[in-house]
Amino acid sequence: MIVRNEQQMKSITKAAQVAATVLDRMCAMVAPGMNTYDLDQSGRRFIDELGGESACYKYQVGSRIYPAYTCLSVNNEVVHGIGSIDRVLKEGDIISVDVCTRYNGYIGDNCRTVAVGRVEPEVERLLEVTEESMYAGIKAARRGNRVGKISNAVQRVVEKAGFSVIRDFVGHGVGKSLHEEPQIPNFGRPGNGPKLREGAVLCIEPMVNMGRHAVKMSDDGWTALTADGSASAHFEHTVIVTDDGPEILSVPQGKEAPELALKD
Ligand code: MF3
Ligand code: CO
C-alpha cells in the first residue's frame, strides 16, 4: 500500500476533483432519448475542457484496448460498458457512469448509478442501498483498520437489504496508475487484508446486483453483465485515509464533500 506525501496528496485531490466534475456534468445529461455514445463523447469533451485525460481510453488488458472515454453500463450491465449510438436510454433504465481521469500524472476515479426518469421502486432501492453501502465502506477506511473492515461494512449493508455483492470486481488503491495495491473486495471478514495507513488513497466501489452475484462477459470482451439478467448498480469515490479519518477526494472543486457523520 502506497502512502502519499503532501505534494502527491494535492495532485491526487486535483485529479479526483476533475473526475468528480465530469461525473456531475455527465449525470446531469442523462435523460430518455439520449444514446450512450453521445454521453461518452460529452465526457470526453468535459475531461478535455478541464485539462485532463481519460484514464480508460486505450486502457489495456492483455491484447484488448478499451475504446471509450468513460464506462457507461446500463441496467444488467455491471461495469466497463462501452458507449454506443444504438444504446438509447429510456424511462425506467438505470445507468452507471464511471469516470476516471488522469491529471498532472495522477488519477481520480468515481462512479454513480442514476435513474433515467422514473424507475421501479425496487430499482430505486437498489441505487439507495448501493450508495449507502459505499458510505459504510468509506466510514470504515480509518487508519489501523484492515481492508476487510471496509469489505465487511459494504457486504453487511448490501446483504441485509437482500441484494448481492459482486465478487469478480473489487475496489483498489489509486495514484499514478489506475489500479494499485491494495485490492478492496466488497465482501469479507473485518480482520482480513492489510492495515490501512495514513496517506493511503483508495477507490471504494461496491458493485451490487439485484439478483445473484455471478457475472458473465459480453461478446465485446469488456462489458460485464449480470449472469441472471438482473439490474446492477455501482457507486465509487476516491478516498484518502487521514489522521482524522476518511476524506472523500472525488468532489467537484468548491463543492462540499458529503457529510460522513450524517450517513448513518
Ligand atoms: N473505473 C474503472 C475501474 O476501476 C475503469 C476501468 S478502465 C477500463 O475498473 F478501460 F477498463 F474500462
Ligand atoms: Co475504480
Structural account:
This protein is of the alpha+beta class and about 260 residues long. It has a single domain, classed as Creatine Amidinohydrolase. About 25% of the residues lie in helices and about 25% in strands. It contains 4 helices and 17 strands. The strands form 5 sheets. It has a 5-stranded antiparallel sheet. α1 runs antiparallel to α2 and α3 runs antiparallel to α4. The longest helix has 24 residues. The chain starts with 5 loop residues before the first helix and ends in a 16-residue tail after the last strand. The model has no long low-confidence stretch (mean pLDDT about 95). Cobalt (II) ion (CO) binds next to loops.
Topology:
Elements: H1 6-29, H2 36-49, E1 53-54, E2 60-61, E3 64-65, E4 71-74, E5 77-79, E6 94-103, E7 106-115, H3 121-139, H4 147-160, E8 164-165, E9 171-173, E10 180-184, E11 201-204, E12 207-209, E13 215-217, E14 224-226, E15 232-234, E16 237-242, E17 245-248
Antiparallel strand pairs: 1-6, 2-3, 4-6, 5-14, 6-7, 8-12, 9-10, 9-11, 11-16, 12-15, 13-14, 16-17
Helix pairs in contact: 1-2, 3-4
The structure holds 2-amino-4-trifluoromethylsulfanyl-butyric acid (MF3) and cobalt (II) ion.
